């Protein structure tokens, strides 16, 4: 079974050991220990990347690689359970951190090969003290339920201590009995808890007593564990910095309990490697707080041996600044940590973190992934490269397209557009939906998709505002545009000059959606018309380009041909080529019926680019017919070859070479540039690389 | 499959240190067990029971057994169990050990019967002396010593017995011995030379006795059975043999028993008219071989003798005696009456199924000197030399031995006298042991026992069930009662009368004449 993620070798490699192996001390998927890279201080590893870069998949894979071999927990900070308190729980006794710690401990407690369950007596008594703050004798069933869940963290489920849960039930009964007494609830509960922890003579009970003693060192407790727990509960209820202080202690309790599971020689002889905690969406409150507390404790010299892998949405920028919490964190790309991280802890808390940016997948990874998904199917040879060109290496995009290819290739789909509009069933038991919608749901969750779909056609804030004014409801307005702009940046989407949605893949998906909005593409046409109008009101070459770009998007090539034909003799060749590229980057959608089926049979650009329609095409009067037709062919060739939704046609590429060669003869001053382009563009286009205007070098040689 | 096993070993066992150490310990234990088992398997287990092993090249279980081991002979089981029971009852330090040296693993039915009866006799004596109302010490513990079917492994057994004299077993005497074979003779010689007292039960050979020719080749040997010489003398006293009427048939070359018997019988026939006739049996005298043919010829010779020749003196072993009698039964001259006189080997024929009993109806009677006979002390008997009471004591004990607590000891038979003589032999041994034990001591020294034999006489005599046992200075019984027994045509034997080597029973004082 090929479960491994593609392109994530630096993390999962075993020989030489990858990052995971070096930090955890265990080979992924195998119960074999290896040397540690950081024997004393362990970096808090944070994977960064935008949506769809496979961070969650990566963490999921880490869990799969180590589950059952070492204690491992995976929590997602964006899960609803960490967002708000359950309705019946008072806010004073609940926090995302406490909830996250409970979940983490429950997962870490699971037995692994060779070792039994881990008990969390320190965390359990702390959580119990905190939860008691929200208990009253009016809500016994809830209290019973909460107490049982917390106490089960402490249950070794060993037959030596009685059968699973029996101890917890006994303690809960005791706690309930204290509730009937008058007096402060918290103190009564803490007292009863400490009492039940101190009973018994088994090794487990000795462990419990030692654990309770841990709270002696709580500030101002004066060596009294009971007082320590009361203070902790009080701090938690007080909210604000006091709550943070209490939460930090709870995190410390969790780590102390984990450390104890590795403390004795006997325990170490049962366990391999280090425990692992995976925090997905660590920018969300629960994960972020846990990360901060751990980093601060580590900076304060409170050591632990837990390996943290977190996922942070957003991209690492060279100057930092995206992550206020981690100003001094070391930054690496995934490939840089292949052999060693080179990480050294500094003095500040954030220097204890190691930010590892996840790169997009390479064309080779794409090829392997598609190949694996489409085993046994005939796949068009350009498909993997075209997929990579469309997705920009987004693992989510590639995976979904690969799934779509597996399901839709046999049905006759041949282009990426067809794969995106084709139904794809993500899970075996689900009914299929169009792939682009599935992708957009994942890439742009959280609403405003319709607005963004329209704005995807815009090129900058001004055009976006104009578009919003023309096409979006009034209540959206300028604030909505700016809000969306900010959200795109926050979520780590790149910005590109000349595009409101900087990421080409996302833009392509949004435009595809735009085209499919409504039955007769009215939204599509209206949007482009609005932009044409917007740019029509302006002067200048740029405005013309934008206008022609949108005209072309609407299927009208004549203005673009005329513009390019007329500017060719006099314009700077570089500018002309750049204009050609920009105009030809217009999305190409031909008409299709309401079900999405093509009305026209074939992409007509290929026929035009190859000159098959030249005879039927009326050349306007008074123009150089040869140049006109050549520019027309050229425009359609570039349009076809740079369209991310279709596979580049080698014949068209060859024709492109020829046309550019011919043009180079007509412009003595720009011969070199045109010649260079005639060589580069067909090659880049067939390889799925973006086309660029070649650098102008005077001698014409490389 | 192998890859999965390897992965399991590598990851699930080796990597987890605790499991690794446990696995290594287990593996070490397994290897040790394997090596140990391998060594054990390669080394042939030659032990049969505690103290009993099979020597290289032999399947006999040889050695000294102090447990209930029956030498794989079912007929011994009950007796061996009874002895073991009695042995266990004894408190450490209260007893001395007496070894019963017999061919326990013999396969010959006659010898087996003898051995069983000796075993039973010895046990009954042990029970008797250990349960005497006077409560005399030391008590007696019996050990069963086997030198093999043919006695070939006497050397190992003697070594072991000597060890036992020095150990907590406190072995102080060896009894039994059985037949007068060369191996037994060597064993007795070795035992006595190592200072271990020996009491022979059924040995009658002259050269397995002291005092022959004035020499004591076996210092410390005492015997219960009279020597062949004494038997021959008793036989002569009984039969009034005259040289003119008798003819000697003897084994050539013979064994110690036959040779001494031949010598003794020859002395009875000075100036005989008839030349003694010899026969040559197979080396193993329990085998028939072709000896019957020789006897056929000897029978023809006998028929040729004058009618006045009516006595045949036979110096041979029981197998040959049986063949001789069977040939005599087929002789042509059945009108010519013959009486065959022989030594105690005749007793074997009482239960011999190969004996042609019709021969005994054809003017032929076979009489022999028995070692003991149950009827010897019944009815009207001599006033001295033995008593009805002593015989009755044993008879009573045998009756009690039919069930617990004395028995069971297996089926008993007294006809062959072996039980009686073995009983008396142990009685004699115990008498010597107890007499030699100094006051305040629980066991005598070996040397004291050796010196004791010569003092067993007069009032110190042993009143055996077979008669009085008064030892001369050489350890031989003086004027021991010799029952003359005749084979019955209907099977079994008939006690004829008691004969005395000295012609008359001993005097009441029972002191051997100088």
The low-pLDDT segments of chain A are 316-321, 698-702
Rough outline of chain B = globular
CATH architectural label of the largest domain in chain B: 3-Layer(aba) Sandwich
- Mean pLDDT value of chain B: 86
Share in helix of chain B: 25-40%
| CATH fold-level topology of the largest domain in chain B | Rossmann fold
Sheet with most strands of chain B: 8 strands, mixed
Radius of gyration of chain A: 31 Å
Rg from alpha-carbon coordinates of chain B: 27 Å
DSSP strand (E) fraction of chain B? 15-25%
Question: Would you mind describing this structure in some detail?
Answer:
The complex is a heterodimer of chains A (702) and B (514). Chain A contains 30 helices and eight strands. The model of chain A is unreliable at 316-321 and 698-702 (pLDDT under 50). By secondary structure, chain A is mainly alpha-helical. Among the domains of chain A are: 363-441, no CATH class; 539-687, no CATH class. The radius of gyration of chain A is 31 Å and the shape is elongated. A six-stranded parallel β-sheet of chain A has the order 2-3-4-1-6-5, sandwiched between helices. By secondary structure, chain B is of the alpha/beta class. In chain B, 37% of the residues lie in helices and 16% in strands. Chain B is built from 13 helices and 17 strands. In chain B, strands 1-2-3-5-4-6-7-8 form an eight-stranded mixed β-sheet, sandwiched between helices. A seven-stranded mixed β-sheet of chain B has the order 10-9-11-12-13-16-17. Chain B is globular. The model of chain B has no long low-confidence stretch (mean pLDDT 86).
């Amino acid at each position: 079974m090929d479960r491994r993620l593609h392109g994530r070798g630096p993390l999962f490699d075993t020989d030489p050991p990858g990052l995971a192996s070096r930090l955890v001390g265990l080979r992924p998927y195998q119960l074999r220990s290896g040397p540690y890279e950081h024997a004393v201080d362990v970096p808090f590893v944070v994977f960064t990347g935008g949506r769809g870069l496979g961070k969650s998949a990566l963490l999921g894979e880490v869990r799969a690689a180590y589950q059952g071999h070492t204690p491992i927990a995976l929590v997602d900070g964006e899960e609803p359970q960490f967002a708000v308190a359950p309705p019946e729980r008072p806010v004073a006794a609940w926090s995302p951190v406490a909830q996250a710690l409970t979940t983490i401990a429950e997962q870490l407690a699971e037995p692994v090969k060779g070792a039994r369950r881990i008990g969390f007596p320190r965390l359990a008594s702390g959580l119990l003290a905190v939860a008691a703050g929200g208990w009253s004798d009016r809500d016994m069933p809830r209290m019973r339920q909460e107490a049982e869940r917390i106490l089960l963290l402490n249950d070794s489920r060993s037959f030596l201590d009685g059968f699973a849960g029996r101890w917890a039930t006994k303690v809960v009964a005791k706690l309930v009995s204290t509730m009937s007494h008058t007096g402060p609830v918290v103190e009564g509960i803490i007292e009863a808890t400490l009492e039940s922890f101190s009973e018994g003579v088994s090794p487990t009970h000795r462990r419990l007593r030692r654990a309770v003693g841990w709270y002696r060192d709580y500030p101002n407790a004066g060596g009294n564990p009971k007082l320590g727990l009361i203070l902790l509960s009080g701090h938690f209820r007080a909210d604000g910095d006091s709550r943070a202080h209490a939460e930090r202690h709870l995190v410390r309790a969790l780590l102390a309990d984990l450390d104890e599971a590795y403390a004795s020689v006997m325990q170490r002889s049962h366990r391999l490697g280090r425990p692992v905690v995976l925090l997905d969406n660590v920018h969300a409150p629960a994960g972020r707080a846990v990360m901060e507390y751990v980093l601060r404790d580590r900076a304060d010299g409170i050591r632990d041996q837990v390996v943290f892998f977190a996922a942070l949405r957003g991209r690492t920028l060279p100057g930092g600044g995206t992550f206020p919490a981690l100003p001094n964190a070391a930054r690496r790309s995934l490939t840089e940590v292949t052999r060693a991280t080179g990480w050294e802890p500094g003095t500040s808390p954030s220097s204890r973190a190691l930010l590892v940016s996840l790169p997009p997948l390479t064309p080779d990874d794409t090829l392997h992934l598609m190949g694996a998904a489409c085993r046994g199917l005939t796949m068009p040879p350009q498909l993997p490269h075209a997929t990579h060109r469309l997705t920009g290496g987004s693992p989510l995009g590639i995976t979904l397209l690969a799934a779509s290819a597996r399901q839709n290739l046999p049905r006759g789909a041949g282009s990426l557009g067809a794969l995106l509009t084709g139904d794809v069933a993500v899970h075996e038991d689900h009914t299929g939906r169009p792939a682009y919608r599935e992708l957009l749901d994942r890439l742009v969750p959280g609403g405003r998709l319709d607005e963004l779909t329209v704005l995807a056609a815009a090129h900058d804030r001004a055009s976006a505002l104009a578009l919003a004014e023309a096409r979006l409801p009034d209540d959206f307005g300028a604030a909505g545009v700016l809000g969306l702009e900010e959200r795109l940046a926050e979520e780590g989407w790149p910005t590109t000059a000349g595009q409101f949605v900087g990421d080409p893949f996302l833009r392509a998906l949004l435009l595809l959606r735009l085209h499919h909005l409504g039955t007769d593409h009215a939204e599509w046409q209206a949007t482009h018309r609005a932009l044409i109008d917007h740019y029509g009101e302006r002067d200048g070459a740029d405005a013309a380009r934008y206008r022609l770009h949108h005209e072309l998007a609407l299927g009208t090539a004549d203005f673009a041909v005329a513009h390019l034909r007329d500017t060719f003799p006099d314009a700077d060749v570089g500018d002309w080529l750049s204009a050609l590229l920009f105009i030809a980057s217009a999305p190409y959608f031909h008409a299709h019926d309401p079900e999405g089926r093509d009305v026209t049979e074939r992409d007509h650009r290929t026929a035009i680019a190859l000159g098959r329609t030249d005879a039927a095409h009326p050349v306007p009067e008074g123009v150089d017919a040869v140049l006109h037709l050549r520019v027309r062919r050229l425009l359609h060739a570039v349009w076809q070859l740079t369209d991310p939704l279709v596979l580049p046609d080698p014949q068209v590429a060859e024709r492109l070479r020829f046309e550019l060669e011919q043009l180079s003869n007509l412009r003595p001053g720009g011969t070199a540039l045109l010649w260079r382009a005639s060589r580069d563009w067909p090659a880049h286009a067939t390889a799925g690389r973006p086309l660029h205007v070649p650098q102008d070098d005077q001698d014409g040689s490389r | 499959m192998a890859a999965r096993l390897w992965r399991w070993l590598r990851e699930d066992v080796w990597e987890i240190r605790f499991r690794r150490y446990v696995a290594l310990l287990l593996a070490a234990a397994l290897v040790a067990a394997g090596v140990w088992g391998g060594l054990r398997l390669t080394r042939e287990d030659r032990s049969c029971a505690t103290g009993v092993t099979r020597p290289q090249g032999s399947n006999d279980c040889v050695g000294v057994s102090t447990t209930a081991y029956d030498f794989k002979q079912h007929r011994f089981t009950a007796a061996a169990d009874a002895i073991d029971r009695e042995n266990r009852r004894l408190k450490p330090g209260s007893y001395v050990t007496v070894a019963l040296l017999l061919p326990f693993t013999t396969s010959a039915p006659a010898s087996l019967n003898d051995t069983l009866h000796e075993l039973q006799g010895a046990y009954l004596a042990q029970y008797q002396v250990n349960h005497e109302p006077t409560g005399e010490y030391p008590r007696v513990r019996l050990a069963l010593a086997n030198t093999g079917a043919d006695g070939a492994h006497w050397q190992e057994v003697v070594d072991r017995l000597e060890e036992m004299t020095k150990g907590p077993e406190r072995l102080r005497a060896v009894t039994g011995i059985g037949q007068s074979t060369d191996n037994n003779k060597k064993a007795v010689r070795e035992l006595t030379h190592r200072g271990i007292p020996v009491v022979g039960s059924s040995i009658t050979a002259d050269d397995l006795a002291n005092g022959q020719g004035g020499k004591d080749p076996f210092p410390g040997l005492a015997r219960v059975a009279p020597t062949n010489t004494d038997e021959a003398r008793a036989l002569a006293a009984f039969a009034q043999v005259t040289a003119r009427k008798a003819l000697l048939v003897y084994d050539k070359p013979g064994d110690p028993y036959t040779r001494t018997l031949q010598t003794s019988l020859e002395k009875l026939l000075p100036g005989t008219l008839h030349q003694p006739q010899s026969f040559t049996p197979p080396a193993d005298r329990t085998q028939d071989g072709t000896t019957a043919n020789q006897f056929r010829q000897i029978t023809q010779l006998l028929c040729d003798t004058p009618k006045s020749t009516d006595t045949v003196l036979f110096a041979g072993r029981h197998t040959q005696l049986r063949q001789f009698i069977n040939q005599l039964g087929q002789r042509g001259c059945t009108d010519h009456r013959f009486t065959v006189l022989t030594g105690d080997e005749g007793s074997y024929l009482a239960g011999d199924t190969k004996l042609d009993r019709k021969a005994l109806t054809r003017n032929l009677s076979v009489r022999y000197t028995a070692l003991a006979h149950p009827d010897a002390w019944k009815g009207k008997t001599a006033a001295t030399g033995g008593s009805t009471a002593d015989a009755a004591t044993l008879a009573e004990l045998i009756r009690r031995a039919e069930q617990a607590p004395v028995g069971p000891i297996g089926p008993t038979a007294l006809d062959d006298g072996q039980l009686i003589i073995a009983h008396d032999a142990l009685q004699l041994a115990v008498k010597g042991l107890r007499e030699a034990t100094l006051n305040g001591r629980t066991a005598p020294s070996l040397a004291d026992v050796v010196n004791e034999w010569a003092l067993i006489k007069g009032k110190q005599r042993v009143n055996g069930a077979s008669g009085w046992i008064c030892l001369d200075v050489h350890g031989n019984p003086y004027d021991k009662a010799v029952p003359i027994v005749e084979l019955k045509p209907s099977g079994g034997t008939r006690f004829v009368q008691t004969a005395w080597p000295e012609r008359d029973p001993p005097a009441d004082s029972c002191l051997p004449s100088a």
